[in-house]
Amino acid sequence: MSACTFFGHRDCPSSIRGVLSAEIERLITEKDVDTFYVGTHGNFDRMAYTALVELRKLYQQITVYRVLAYMPKPYDIDTADTIVPEGIENAYPRYAIVHRNNWMILC
Question: Residue 87 belongs to a domain with what CATH number?
Fold first, then answer.
């Protein structure tokens, strides 16, 4: 089994939604990908996460993690499937997303 990481641009067009979902499904069925890490900023990240949540209903063997770039606030309610990269607390806030993305690549 293997892992796949998704993070992308905040202004990603919604027209790629179908292609993205189909590619994720291909990764699951043809490449045996069972673990997915997704960023939490921008349209692409939201589309990837939404597609993964839908596909998780069909492919219950997959695990999906939303990877935070910043420490969650106490009032952040929806943190059920989120993780925080090691060392993010030491990252300069301006570069926290870069730190998170690099961490995701190394997973």
Answer: 3.40.50
